[in-house]
């Protein structure tokens, strides 16, 4: 169980709080939405939950232990902008293999074509890159996914395809998923419950 | 109907210049072979051309002496090629040293941070605010002039640009999403440095190194021209140019014009080499 207890974060001791006193639990197999207005700290909270930055106050635990600082992190974050989360000097096959070698059926389900693997990132569109980012985050070691506005800039069909794969994987592997979005219809459709983040 | 139809598609033959990639490869090949030609000719040409021959003084360019002869009857083509070879050697050594200094200092600045970064940035700013030639003259003077003086002064003044570039690149990479993500995927710091940072830094280093050559060569010629560089009996380009100054007004135009032009072409070919290599190394432009 991924547990946040009174998480608060600010960048420097003099700056204002980005978010304060967040408490919630994410159980395996559970799909939870996180919504809130722009600039309320959703992305920063996502980074704290996946271990990218440590909270200023509060405690984050995975099965009553802190997140591992080394090795594969069981909590994986998928970024909003895939073009920033992929090294521009790597070919796409390298991008996937940095995490693991995804089985063919996962690539098919995500609509990744064989020809794309040999390409450079700038030769693919944002939607195509995001499919790679999702595939990369689904390595066997992953137990929780933090999806930070991952389909906001994609068209409806791509959006549906990506969510179908994530929901199917979550059901089969008992993954806990936190869906960060301010799109109410999406959250209503995929999530069991929704947490509101206030400014 | 016929006047409405589209013009038939033109099938261009695959000439050597039919696409950007070929043009780039050709430009690199041409620059490299031109530089190789200078070195080979500079070594192979009959050194007798360097001897004084008072019967053939001050001759304008002819087929026998394509660059003419000077007031001592020395063949200017031989002298120019020898001079360019010396300049090339000085340029290679000085810019390689300079680029290595730039790489190390840039890396130290970006990875150690804190006061190290503050001090290095301050030193870089100081070097950049000082006129290049002043620093060059001072350092060459401290090292006692000559070949060592020229190499040391060029190497010690030209690292700042590359150091800044490397520092900025590393700082940007350190905060890049994909670098932080790599750490969360369980990759070690050494793995990240090798696989994420190196592919970005090597092209910067190689291109930075190549683009340093023109500066190094021109500054070498410059301080030799002033008289604190290489010694006068070596036919360095700077020496040739400064000697020819005295004879320019008497109408011996070939003494300065042709060696100067050769220097310009050599510098430009290094420049072309650097620019084209940059286009080739970047995946964004390598396939255009």
Structure characterization notes:
The complex is a heterodimer of chains A (199) and B (288). In chain A, 29% of the residues lie in helices and 23% in strands. Chain A contains six helices and eight strands, in the order E-E-E-H-E-E-H-H-H-E-H-E-H-E. In chain A, the strands form two sheets. A five-stranded parallel beta sheet of chain A has the order 5-6-7-3-8, with helices on both faces. Chain A has a three-stranded antiparallel beta sheet with strand order 2-1-4, with helices on one face. Chain B is mainly α and 288 residues long. Chain B has one domain: MetI-like (MetI-like fold), CATH 1.10.3720. Helix content of chain B is 72%, strand content 0%. Chain B is built from eleven helices and no strands. In chain B, helix 2 (76-112) packs parallel to helix 6 and helix 3 runs antiparallel to helix 6 (160-174). The interface between A and B is medium-sized, with 25 and 16 residues.
